[in-house]
Structures are given as C-alpha cells and as structure tokens.
C-alpha cells in the first residue's frame, strides 16, 4: 500500500508518500508556484510514481469524500473546503493577500486532481469528528483544520510508538506553531476530544485569532482575507520571525508586546484544554517549532504544565512537514494499509455534517444554508448529521 499526502501550507505545499509505515518519497513546492501553475503539483504527484490513494488538501474539512463522489470540483473546493465565495477569492487576489493565494492554489489543485481522475480523497477537520462532544462544538467552526487533525494523527502514532502504549493510553496536547496560525488540540484515549484552531487561539504570527464581538461590530465590514491579519506580523510590520525575535531579545517595542501576546495566547490555550488529571506530554509541531529561539520561549512557558517535546516524525522522513505525513497516514488507513487500526480507532471515517452545523446565530443562518446547499450539490451521497 502506497499513500500520498498533500499538505497545503501558507508557504509551501508538501507532498509525502508512505509505505509500510515509512516515508519513501518527499517533495515541496512553493505555494505561489502552485497558485500560478497548479499543474506543477499534479506533475509532482505523478513524479511520485504509482500510489493507491492520495489524501488531498482539505482546508476546513469535509466528511471523507473521494474524487469519484465529487460532481462540481470548483464549488466543492472553494465553497465547501475553503468556505469562500468567488467574489471573496477575486478580491483577495486583487489585494495581493498571501493567505488568499493559498486558497487560490488549493482550489486550482482540487480541480486539476479531479480532472486527472487520480484516486484522491478529502478528509475531515476536528469539528466534524464524533469523538469531540457536541456541546464543545457550539458556536465553533475552527477547532483545528484538516491539516491540524492530520498532525494529531501523527501525534497519536508517535506517542504510542515512543512509549510502547496502546492507542487508548495516548494523552497529549498538540501545539501547532505555523507561519499563519497557531492551533492547540487535545487528545485523550488516543482520540481528539477538543481543539482550538488558528482563529480560536489568540495572536498567531499572521492572524488576530479570536476577536471580541464588540471589536467586530465596530469594524462594520469584514472580508474573507481579514482572518490573515492582526497578528505578530501586523503588530511588528515584519514577515520574518527572526527579525521579530531580534527586536524581542533586545527588549524593544513593539516586539515585546507582540511576542508576549503570542506566547501567553499559546499558554492560556493549552491550560484551557488540559484536564485536571493532566496529560502525558505537550507536543510541538509546525514551522516555528523548528526555530530554536522561538521554541525555547514556548518550552519555558509550557513546561510548567507538562513535559514538552517536539513531535516525532515517521521513519524515513527528512524534510516534509508533520501535516503532510499525517495526511498520508490518513489516506493509508482509509485504504486499509499500515495505519488502518489507528484511523479506525480515531473514528476519522465516521465524520459527518458541515463545519457550520453547530453554529447558532441569526446573522449566520444564511451562511449555514449556503454551505449546506454547496455541500449537497457538489458531491454525491453527502454525509449529513443524523439530526438533519
């Protein structure tokens, strides 16, 4: 069994092939290149050789969906996976928004993969999983996007292998430190039980995170690309974390303000998801977990809560990001490969519904209807919540 995973990052698209629990092939393509020439990613997929299944870039997540179930790939990608309307995409591109380029790239890639007829599947995000109690989902959407869910899958396998414990004994808090977003996910008994995605963890590198509703109404109008603003980069006017850390270490403002806000946001998020009995450890992943200076700052904060370590990788992995490995693992397990017991244990194939099903606000009724309509009209046999 060979499975290929595709992780759509803000900076790069990472591709990984796993076979027999090992990484056997890796590739990385700049996100801007993918947006400008989506066929470059399909070419890379074909260069990986024959594979049995491909876990494609899944954005905000969808119940497990195969290429052959999709009837309108553009609408499926843009509206269902990315929760974005055509006019939002057009405006974001015109404004030169970095984050929207990722959306543009994902949309084009999904269409190209559909046209190619390759054995692609798309995977759920955390909020769609039955292992998170419904009451924790109320008025939440981003409890960890599909890529963060995939990292948690790698985390469960990594801890089980490292300590020689069954999946049901795995317990950790995952802290994803990405270029755009941070995310914090709670795993207990080897399944995802809670999560705060990139727009629910305060002050990411790009994103503002959760926002006071009073501030939101003062802004009057918000557009899709606004989720990529308000974070450390905005506060400091820098897109380089090393430049930000240089200023922080010198005790200069606004670097102190920005970094302390981000660190405290991570710490408080972890504390809010840590059960009273504690967890075995806190796992760090993402681009900035590989920055020694920033990692030390995070470890100092979080080591007061539980032991902290960087998430391990699959055997054979050298350059690919954790999310790409997780994507490939999910695909492998879905297709009955090496990780099938893990995927069954985490109940990933049992995901259902849309990511807005647990949102209750009159202002969002039309958005819920729009997403529901897009989902049932863009795929065959949509997997809906049983209460609907």
CATH architectural name: 2-Layer Sandwich
* Domain module count: 1
- Let me know the largest β-sheet: 6 strands, mixed
Rg from Cα: 19 Å
Distance between termini? 37 Å
What is the spatial order of strands in the main beta sheet? 3-2-1-4-6-5
What overall form do the CA principal axes indicate? globular
Q: What is the CATH level 1 assignment? A: Alpha Beta
Give the fraction of residues assigned to helices. 40-55%
The counted number of beta strands is 11
Number of helices: 15
Output the structural class.
Answer: alpha/beta
CATH homologous superfamily placement: ATPase, nucleotide binding domain
**Amount of beta strand:** 15-25%
CATH fold-level topology: Nucleotidyltransferase, domain 5
- State the low-pLDDT regions, or none: none
- Element pattern in H and E: EEEHHEEHHHEHHEEEHHHHEHEHHH
On the 0 to 100 scale, the average pLDDT is 95
């Amino acid at each position: 069994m060979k499975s290929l995973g595709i992780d759509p990052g803000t900076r790069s698209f990472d591709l990984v092939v796993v076979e027999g629990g090992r990484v056997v092939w890796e590739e990385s393509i700049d996100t801007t290149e993918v947006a400008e020439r989506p066929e470059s990613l399909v070419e890379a997929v074909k260069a990986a050789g024959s594979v049995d299944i491909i876990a494609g870039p899944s954005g905000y997540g969808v119940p497990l969906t195969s290429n052959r179930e999709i009837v309108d790939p553009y609408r499926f990608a843009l509206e269902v996976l990315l929760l974005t309307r055509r006019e939002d995409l057009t405006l974001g591109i015109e404004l030169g928004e970095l984050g929207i380029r990722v959306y543009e790239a994902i949309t084009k890639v999904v269409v190209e993969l559909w046209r190619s007829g390759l054995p692609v599947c798309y995977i759920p995000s955390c909020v769609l999983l039955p292992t998170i109690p419904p009451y924790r989902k109320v008025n939440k959407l981003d409890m960890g996007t599909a890529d963060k869910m995939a990292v948690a899958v790698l985390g469960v396998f990594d801890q089980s292998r490292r300590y020689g414990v069954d999946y049901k004994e795995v317990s950790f808090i995952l802290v994803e430190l990405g270029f755009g977003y941070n995310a914090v996910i709670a795993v207990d008994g080897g399944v995802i039980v809670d999560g705060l995605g990139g727009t629910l963890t305060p002050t990411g590198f790009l994103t503002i995170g959760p926002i006071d509703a009073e501030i939101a109404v003062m802004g009057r109008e918000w557009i899709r690309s606004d989720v990529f603003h308000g974070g450390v980069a905005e506060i400091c006017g820098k897109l380089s974390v090393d430049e930000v850390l240089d200023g922080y270490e010198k005790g200069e403002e606004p670097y102190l303000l920005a970094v302390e806000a981000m660190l405290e946001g991570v710490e408080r998020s972890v504390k809010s998801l840590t059960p009273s009995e504690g967890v075995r450890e806190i796992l760090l992943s993402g681009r900035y977990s590989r920055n020694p200076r920033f990692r030390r700052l995070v470890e100092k904060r979080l080591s007061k809560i539980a032991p902290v370590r960087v998430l391990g990788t699959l055997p054979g992995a050298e350059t690919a990001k954790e999310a790409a490995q997780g994507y490939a693992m999910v695909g492998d397990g879905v297709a009955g490969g090496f990780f099938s017991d893990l995927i069954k244990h985490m109940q990933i194939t049992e995901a259902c519904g849309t990511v807005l099903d647990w949102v209750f606000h009159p202002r969002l009724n039309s958005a819920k209807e729009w997403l529901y309509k897009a989902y049932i009209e863009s795929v065959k046999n949509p997997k809906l919540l049983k209460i609907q």
